[in-house]
Amino acid sequence: MNKFYGTGVAIITPFQANGAIDFDALRNLIEYLIEGGVEYIVSLGTTGENVVLSADERKAVFAFTAEVVNGRIDLVAGIASNNTAEVIEQIKSFDTKGYSAILSASPAYNKPTQEGIYQHYKAIAEASPLPVILYNVPGRTGSNVSAETTIRLAKEFKNIIGIKEASGNFDQFNQIMRDKPEGFLLISGDDPVTLPMIALGAVGAITVIGNALPRQTSDMVRACLAGNYATAQKLHFSLVDFTRLCFVEGSPAGVKTALKILGVCDDTVRLPLVQVSSETASRFKQEIEKITA
Q1: Given 12, 73, 75, 239, which residue has the most CB atoms within 10 angstroms?
Q2: With contact defined as beta carbons under 8 Å apart, do 81 and 10 qualify?
């Protein structure tokens, strides 16, 4: 496969019960994902709770992840902020060793205009030593990166190589696929719609549920990319209820609960996030037993 085709996992950051980063558990998780057949990992995206880590903690997680992966699969670094100057400083100080690209979410809370979003990513593209993947997730950021802005950036900056799209707007996906330059990647950023997005021409997914179910998720994506939709549909439908549970009380609290049940790592999150209710945890256990039976 070409780079960033297939399944990328937006990896969680495991914490000990006292809130400290659990590097032993992070190692376990990375090995679990590689054994599960995923094509690449995104370190410290939204799912990695990057906004509640200090600068030193982020640096440590990036370095540790690269060391453990050791070139076996591709690595993407999540570097984002609603302060453009801060993103640029993070990129300038980032040790790129072991990493193949940067994933950067559009600015949250500020609600910039499309011109502001364009200028934000222009600054990132001009500063980045690595290829850049845009990330549009209006449900979290409060603003949408329009198809026109995505295409403008894709055409004007050769090192902007793709977009993780989590808007859920299929009209927007249609426009991106129709108007994008050759080689620009549309990547699903929303687990429930990965299958239909690949049918439109997306090259894979950056997934949350793949943290817990890497084999099932990556098998589904590969079946889609091979055009084997009969197999892909069966796998997709088998994951519908599990996917809902992962988001019913917020992410990554949900998928961390699943990982705890699977024995991969603990389910601790940092405030303002909290662990899921006992009722949801019980439903997770039932669903995992059904999927893995």
Answers
A1: 12
A2: no
pTM of the complete model = 0.97
- Per CATH, the number for 6-228 is 3.20.20.70
Are 240 and 192 within 8 A, CB to CB? yes
Do 276 and 26 touch, CB atoms closer than 8 A? no
21 marked as part of a ligand binding site: no
pLDDT along the chain (293 residues), means of 10: 91 97 98 98 97 97 98 98 97 97 97 98 98 97 97 98 98 98 98 98 98 98 98 98 97 98 98 98 97 89
Tokens of 118: 């364009």
- Per domain, the residue ranges of the chain are 6-228
Distance from C-alpha of 204 to C-alpha of 190, rounded to nearest angstrom: 11
Instruction: Reply yes or no on whether 5 is catalytic.
Output: no
Residue 194, amino acid: T
